[in-house]
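# nightly structure sweep
# worker-07 picked up a monomer target from the shared queue
# config: single-sequence mode, recycle default, output format = C-alpha cells
# input follows
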Amino acid sequence: MMQQYRAYLVGENGVFRSAEAFEAPSDSSALAFAKQFTRLGKVEVWQLGRKVAVLESEQSRPPEPSRPTLTRQ
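# output follows
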C-alpha cells in the first residue's frame, strides 16, 4: 500500500523553503526518493505528522574517504 510523504527543503535559518509531496510504499523507499533533493540543501522527510528522517545536504557532507588499494608483490 502506498503512503503519503513530503520532502521539505530546509533553509539555513531552519525555515522550510519548499515541499514535494509524493507516495512511496515504505519509509526506506521514501528516503531513497527524497535523497535526490539533498543536492539543494538539508531535507526533512515526513509521513503525515511523523518525521521520518533528516537528510543532510550533499554540500555539507565531507567527501567519502578513499579506500586504500591493495597491491600484490
